[in-house]
TrEMBL record:
InterPro entries according to UniProt: NAD(P)-bd_dom_sf (IPR036291), NmrA-like (IPR008030), NmrA-type_oxidoreductase (IPR052718)
Domain NmrA-like: 2-245
Listed name of the protein: NAD(P)H-binding protein
PANTHER family associated with the record: NMRA-LIKE DOMAIN-CONTAINING PROTEIN, QUINONE OXIDOREDUCTASE 2
Signal peptide: none
Pfam family, one: NmrA
Length: 278
């Protein structure tokens, strides 16, 4: 059996959908904080049990009988997220899982992007768990509107100086995870899954082609950008954290290309331009 956490969310919910296309439902389990949110999976024959990273006993029960456990990275900025991941890893090991998989991030170890430290610490716990592990180091995903700002209204992408970022379609990542989970090939340790990196210049070009009007890329000085974000209601620590992403990108930290995602999908991952168009 494969048990998945975070299946009530977008990423691992899509992974379970892909698993259902590949495996009988009775070989799939979901561990959910709120089982009502996973009712649609239960109705299709998936085993749904309660499990929260704050409740080791329930977690262990939700992992019982699992050959593989896929752990989502938790996302509560106020919580001890690494401690939560440790609890989940220990529960999976205690439940007898043969392999633990975890949704990590591109370039997690030694990253120039400070939030990645959570993933580096979690990979260290996995490495010491005594269980085979796979860290799915995903490219960046999320809202392109948030990344690019109100370019549709303004015709301008006004952000700090950047560099290449492997902006990757979350649906492609979810599909690749299902291919790994359902397949025979063993992936040990960190595995980078990302689309070719794109810069904000590339996005401006794609936006221009998409709309037939010129969308301009304007570089805003770092401190001016932070001041503007705060004036627009963004908490300063969030603005400064986001700034570190642009700074890491401009240092070239996220550059480079890994062909594994295309290999697993059997096609090219959706490009930045395709993601913008969809
Ligand atoms: N690589 C990137 O660029 C990037 C970007 C954004 C996010 N992320 C990470 O990727 C993860 C998945 O993304 P997503 O889009 O699927 O996010 P999402 O839609 O917010 O889903 C998060 C999932 O994690 C579950 N969860 C959170 N904390 C938990 C805990 N303490 N115990 C058990 N389950 C917990 C949530 O359960 P509930 O339904 O009960 O809330 C939900 O199912 C995020 O949590 C975040 O860590 C990475």
């Amino acid at each position: 059996m494969i048990v998945v956490t975070g299946a009530t969310g977008t990423l691992n919910g899509a992974t379970v959908e892909h698993l259902l296309r590949r495996l009988p439902a009775d070989r799939i389990g979901v561990s959910a904080r709120d089982v009502a949110k996973a009712q649609h999976f239960a109705e299709r024959g998936v085993r749904v049990r309660p499990g929260s990273y704050d409740d080791p006993v329930a977690l262990r029960d939700s992992f019982a009988g699992a050959d593989q456990v896929l752990l989502v990275s938790a996302n509560d900025p106020a919580a001890d997220v690494v401690g939560q991941h440790r609890t989940a890893i220990e529960a999976a090991a205690a439940a007898g899982a043969r392999r633990i998989l975890y949704t990590s991030q591109h370039g997690a170890v030694g990253s120039a992007y400070p939030p990645a430290a959570i993933h580096a610490a979690t990979e260290e716990i996995l490495a010491g768990s005594g269980v085979a592990w796979t860290s799915l180091r995903y490219g960046f995903f999320g809202s392109l509107d948030q990344l690019l700002g109100p370019w549709r209204q303004t015709g301008v992408i006004a952000k700090p100086a950047d560099g290449p970022i492997p902006w990757t379609d979350r649906a492609d990542l979810a599909e690749a995870a299902a291919v790994i989970l359902a397949g025979d090939r063993a992936f040990d340790g960190p595995v980078t899954l990302s689309a070719p990196a794109a810069t904000l210049d590339d996005f401006a070009e794609a936006a221009s082609e998409l709309t037939g009007r010129t969308v301009e890329r304007v570089v805003v000085e770092d401190e001016q950008w932070v001041t503007e974000q705060i004036a627009n209601g963004t908490p300063e620590f969030v603005a400064r954290l986001t700034l570190t992403m642009f700074q890491a990108a401009r240092s070239g930290y996220f550059a480079g290309h890994n062909p594994l995602l295309a290999e697993l999908l059997g096609r090219e991952p959706r490009s930045a331009a395709e993601q913008l168009a969809s």
